[in-house]
Specification:
This protein has about 100 residues and is an all-alpha fold. The protein contains five helices and no strands. The chain starts with 8 loop residues before the first helix and ends with a helix. It binds zinc ion.
């Protein structure tokens, strides 16, 4: 597998942890099987510049995950999904709720 060039935003975020990816509707890490974004990915260091590149991508993923996971019998509620997918942002409860409402 060839790695994408570091010029696009998304690979810059994920590439140091190649394989720790997921997609809907299950949102479990391909590598470790944990709910994604998995602990390994979340433990990766970020800085302000990296977080700025992550916001649009993870906002899109959060919206998709809310649609996939909402209403599942044992699934997380939309606020928990927002906190999980936007872990790198310091959201208060009311801010997370506001984001969840916007992503419906
Ligand atoms: Zn993982």
């Amino acid at each position: 597998m060839t790695e994408p060039t570091p010029t696009s935003a998304y690979p810059r975020v994920v590439l140091p942890l190649t394989g720790h990816r997921a997609c809907g509707p299950a949102w479990r890490c391909d590598r470790c099987g944990e709910p994604w974004p998995c602990p390994t990915l979340r433990a990766a260091p970020t800085d302000a510049a990296r977080r700025a590149t992550m916001i649009p991508e993870f906002s899109r993923l959060t919206r998709q995950a809310v649609r996939d996971l909402r209403g599942r019998p044992d699934g997380p509620d939309p606020i928990a999904i927002v906190r999980r997918f936007l872990w790198f942002l310091p959201l208060t409860d009311s801010e997370a709720r506001a984001v969840a409402l916007r992503l419906r």
